[in-house]
Design brief:
This protein has helices at about 1-10, 40-50, 80-90, 95-110, 145-160, 165-190, 210-225, 230-250, 265-275, 290-305, 305-315, 335-355, 360-370, 380-405, 425-449; strands at about 75, 125, 195, 205, 410-415, 420. It is an all-alpha fold. The chain has a two-stranded antiparallel sheet with strand order 1-2. A two-stranded antiparallel sheet has the order 3-4. Helix 7 runs antiparallel to helix 8 (about 230-250). It is globular and about 55 Å long. The chain starts with a helix and ends with a helix.
């Protein structure tokens, strides 16, 4: 049904593909064929859900793979777990009981005495099934965890407070909100500007785009929650107001950058999607900064990966993104999650264009160059951006299908062959693909109005 709903809106699509830009590699699809079949979606969903609540706990396993190029992924990463639970709730794939189990897991981890000499709220990962803090050498602290956990739990808190059951309200007041506010207190206490590790756990900075944008969103959402008292809400809004100009400063005139020590980074694309849902977003889907960023990133990842050039030459739609140019981890390949995040971004721009808040004429010229599109204008923008999102998912699907792994979404796609690679059945890969599919439906609904 998901794919059929979008296909109905796409029957009148006029494809605008010209010669794909040699600079960006982006190729628009030449038909309205859906990226995934219903059976493929069902297979992905089944494998996705198998990674949630593992071994009877509330933990989310990063991947059920004990032997990846980076070692075992059989841990609960705070970041991956929070993003997964937020995605599952948005897609309505889990019930409140499953989210409560995760919430209780989070509360239990926050109550631990930290063995590594840091604030336990910034620990990156935990053992499964014991829930003990991982004590091996690792890049820590990671200050995006508190905000992401709050964002994962706030939807449950809001839903339970809207319930007619007093027991639900009691649970929120006595257990859930204290856990959420404990996470947010780390941010209002100045934690948002602390020295931290990046999204990929490799470099350090006090000013990562990803960390700032997710912290601000969590503070804005927390301040609006019904149980936030006036003092706490004011503190959250004040901290968010301080973060806003630091986010805006990440546009350097050419693209939005992650940090001064790693500027062009796929974390920005994932972060943009998170930031678009902020009640007071710094960048919007229709902004010139977003268009310029996608153009720059298309060019960089086109040059970085031979598979992008080969796919475009062969007529395979889309483009693949990785973590950052020069990445060497596990061969330095495209990642499914960052590529799917680009697809989600494109669907968001499509929805924005359909609603009349999309890119203006000068910005559409930048997008036309990024997407290799002819005659991109306000009239065809929504359908073109939706087609572009389909193209990115189609390129992912093309290679997963060819890998013959039962539509298991792994961490990476080989930069030479496109074969699935590295950690098997990465939970975050599923989360980003389903985030994109959800926004595909939103874009179709916006176009139908």
């Amino acid at each position: 049904m998901l794919l059929e709903a979008v296909a109905v809106q796409r029957r009148s699509l006029v494809f605008l593909q010209g010669d794909p830009s040699s600079a960006s590699c982006f190729a628009l699809p030449t038909s309205s064929q859906s990226p995934f079949s219903d059976d493929e979606i069902a297979s992905m969903k089944k494998q996705y859900l198998a990674n949630v609540g593992v071994e009877g706990t509330g933990a989310v396993v990063a991947a059920p793979d004990h032997n990846t190029p980076g070692g075992s992924y059989y841990y609960h990463w705070e970041r991956d777990g929070a993003l997964t639970m937020a995605s599952l709730q948005a897609s309505q794939f889990v019930d409140s009981a499953a989210v409560r189990k995760y919430a209780d897991w989070v509360k239990g981890r926050q109550a631990l005495q930290d063995p590594n000499g840091i604030d336990v709220r910034t620990e990156p990962k935990y053992m499964i099934p014991s829930g003990a803090v991982f004590t091996g050498g690792w890049c820590r602290p990671q200050n995006d965890g508190p905000g992401l956990r709050a964002l994962a739990l706030l939807p449950l808190a809001e839903a339970l407070m809207a319930s007619s059951e007093e027991s639900d309200h009691t649970y929120v007041r006595t257990s859930l909100w204290p856990s959420i506010s404990n996470s947010l207190a780390y941010l209002t206490g100045g934690g948002w500007q602390s020295s931290t590790c990046d999204l990929w756990e490799e470099v350090r900075s006090e000013d990562f785009y990803w960390n700032r944008v997710t912290a601000k969103k969590a503070l804005e959402r927390g301040a609006s929650f019904s149980l936030a008292n006036a003092t706490a809400a004011a503190e959250m809004r004040a901290a968010a107001a301080k973060i806003s100009p630091t986010i805006a400063a990440h546009f350097d005139g050419n693209f939005i950058f992650e940090s001064s020590n790693r500027k062009l980074d796929g974390a920005v694309i994932v972060g943009l999607n998170n930031g678009f849902d902020d009640p007071k977003p710094v960048f919007t889907p229709g902004s010139k900064e977003v268009a310029a960023t996608v153009l720059a990133y298309n060019r960089a990842f086109c040059e970085e990966y031979p598979i992008n050039q080969a796919d475009t030459k062969a007529g395979v739609a889309g483009v693949l993104y990785g973590r950052y140019p020069g990445d060497h981890y596990a061969g330095g390949n495209p990642w499914i999650l960052t590529s799917a995040a680009l697809a989600q971004l494109l669907y968001r721009v499509a929805a924005s264009a359909a609603a009349g808040t999309g890119p203006d004429t000068p910005t559409l010229k930048v997008w036309a160059e990024a997407l290799g599109a002819k005659a991109l204008n306000a009239q065809n923008a929504a359908s073109t951006f939706a087609a572009a999102g389909d193209g990115v998912l189609a390129r992912i699907a093309h290679h997963v299908r060819a890998s013959n792994v039962g539509f298991r979404l792994d961490e990476q796609l080989d930069k030479q062959s496109g074969a699935t690679a590295s950690a098997k059945s990465l939970t975050w890969s599923y989360a980003e693909v389903f985030n994109a599919l959800r926004w595909r439906t939103h874009a179709a609904a916006a176009a139908a109005k």
